[in-house]
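Complex 360.
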Amino acid sequence: MNYNITVIKGDGIGPEIVTEAMKVLEAVGRKYDHTFNFTECLAGGAAIDATGEPLPAETVAAAKSSDAVLLGAVGGPKWDHLPGEKRPEQGALLGLRKELGLYANLRPAMMFDQLADASPLKQEIIGEGLDILIVRELTGGIYFGEKGYRETVDPDMGETAYDVEQYSVKEIRRIAKVAFDMAMKRNKKVTSVDKANVLQSSKLWRRTVADVAKEYPEVELDNLYVDNAAMQLVRNPRQFDVIVTSNMFGDILSDEASQITGSIGMLPSASLADGNFGMYEPIHGSAPDIAGTGTANPIATILSAAMMLRYTFGLKEEADDIENAVNQFLAAGYRTPDLCGNAPEAKSTVETGDLIASFI
Ligand code: NAD
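Predicted structure with nicotinamide-adenine-dinucleotide bound:
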């Protein structure tokens, strides 16, 4: 089979880590007789330098005509002085999400057995390991609602700013369906996180998720307020299977969940549109502090490529193969610098990619 992938390497360590993920995909292609056609496009700081725009129209057009997007990371100090929408992160990432209709952000927080020591949580809390999937609504809510500044009538109050949290039944239903579909393929439990004791938008969220749950009688549904969810994630994270929540709550909880697994260099993510289209990227940023040193951990990007095979291309066996290859790399005692305190025997970015590709 032929698969068309738009590749956006981005800035900082982006080009180094994406190159290794492509190497692993090539190894999968050879083993299973698939052809991955890569079209490289610019976005972020690299695009600003080349074209003056963080998200050139050609990149959007190429992404729309491909099956999936593989992204490294964008941004860096060189472009920090630019205003909001001209910056790599806002211009390129929010632009891609909007243009491509990527409304469902999937962030697995999994713990690799060999890396249990890297978690800040005690062994008795982690137990046999963690495997949580956070499903975050990505194109609605307070980040996209009406916002602005206004002068208040009371002169003592001075300038006032506001951001509106707003959700429609349609938006809630479609993200809830993603969560329940995922739960059906996992441990059949969904925890919906909201603030329904205070927010109207959360009351509608809770009611709508309960409606969707009726279509999935095999899946157990739990509701938690977001403050309690934040606490439960560090108190008893093993109670969770799939967590579904709004844009802002998901932003915060997914960072918390990734931290309890220990390493930012290990965690992938997927952003999905209707149909099978998706954009796949590591959860970390462009790490400008280590760019060009050959020490970046490419595993989060390699695992993002595995998610692409699983969710966009439906290639389950091939995706399992990549995840097993990462496990073999760790089980053999290999580590990247971020996982072993920069020990001299640590494997470089390229060596890590080579070894994982060799285990395919
Ligand atoms: P970061 O994730 O880039 O780096 C945080 C720390 O983790 C750094 O010390 C970095 O060296 C380390 N790190 C990150 N990824 C690593 C990897 N694969 N291997 C080894 N170490 C790794 O976050 P930051 O420093 O806050 O941001 C740097 C730039 O990235 C900023 O311009 C920021 O806006 C941007 N950013 C982009 C994205 C994205 O493209 N999706 C996400 C977050 C941040």
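The CA atoms of residues 69 and 229 lie 31 Å apart.
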